[in-house]
């Protein structure tokens, strides 16, 4: 399997489009297989890389969430000028970005995959990771990126070859936390039908974030699906076929 981190636009003759939003420090390669699948199902799909995520560099550069959102909204406006309905699929940090978009723009449907609401807190950390970021995080700019959180070994290797960065930029991570704080009070006013998929074995984000979003969303239709085998990047992991089928059934019933 060959993954690419180059943005894509796959257009059909229909009037429905789907915008795919990747995770923090990742890239459009995380969304590639889903994009190809939804295109074959008849949807126009667009995958983008955010500012600070779009160039191959030794270290991940610093960027801010408002830069990412500006690019997302610009892409959304271009799609909405051509297609009558737009759905958004967000992965990890792409989820609060998708929610922020939904709070201020009309969307047909929302899909949230492994939503980033809090960093996974293991007992041996003593303090929450966010606490460390708020203290020593001011002194350190970069930390090494360890093995990608994918249990499928072959897919993990393909993703590591496609990924641009081998580090995380901590000021950028803190900006993502600022985005999360901005979106939390907006959840009750978001009314779009929403599908949330989260793995219990996620080692990156706290799985309880998916339940919090589900409980607080103002949507009249919302569905929360749990996975039992995958790690964080569920679109590339061992249960990816179930994930893509759930998304297809939700977007194209």
UniProtKB/TrEMBL annotation:
A GO MF label: carboxylic ester hydrolase activity
InterPro entries attached to this UniProt entry: AB_hydrolase_fold, Esterase_lipase, Hydrolase_4, MAG_DAG_Lipase
Record: active site: 92 (nucleophile), 202 (charge relay system), 232 (charge relay system)
Domain of life of the source: Bacteria
A Pfam family it matches: Hydrolase_4
Stretches of the chain forming a coiled coil according to its record: none
Xref: SUPFAM superfamilies: alpha/beta-Hydrolases (SSF53474)
All copies of domain Serine aminopeptidase S33, residue ranges: 15-238
PANTHER family: PHOSPHOLIPASE-RELATED
Protein name, per record: Carboxylesterase
Source organism of this protein record: Aliterella atlantica CENA595
Lineage, uppermost ranks: Bacteria, Bacillati, Cyanobacteriota, Cyanophyceae, Chroococcidiopsidales
